[in-house]
Write a structure and sequence with these properties.
There is one protein chain. By secondary structure, the protein is mainly α. The radius of gyration is 14 Å and the shape is globular. The chain starts with a helix and ends with a helix.
Amino acid sequence: MREDYIKYRIVRANETFSDAVSLFEKNSWNSCINRLYYSAFYAAIALLLFYEIEVKSHNGVKRKLGEMVKRNIFPKNLAKHFGVLSDLRHKGDYDDLFDFNQELTENLIEPTRLFISSIEKICLMKRA
């Protein structure tokens, strides 16, 4: 059951990442960043489930990723990228009269793809 949920979250992460890329292509920067964050969030949830770590909030996910960095389970640069996405998503969703731009948004796409694929590899490698 847990393995099915992990797989579901990875599939959801990839689908949401694809949505983000489509939004980028439509010059919808704020929505793209929102979807980039959620694609990473779904992948992070899969990773935490894989290690049987429970969280109840978005901040809990950030905190647990930080703990995984300290235990040398997860790369620091990827955990930091998740934190950046989280902060930007919050700013884009809740700050009034604020819009992201193409350059910032474009620079987030590849690191998010790497974040998701790294988690996917961890979950698949350990299962085999």
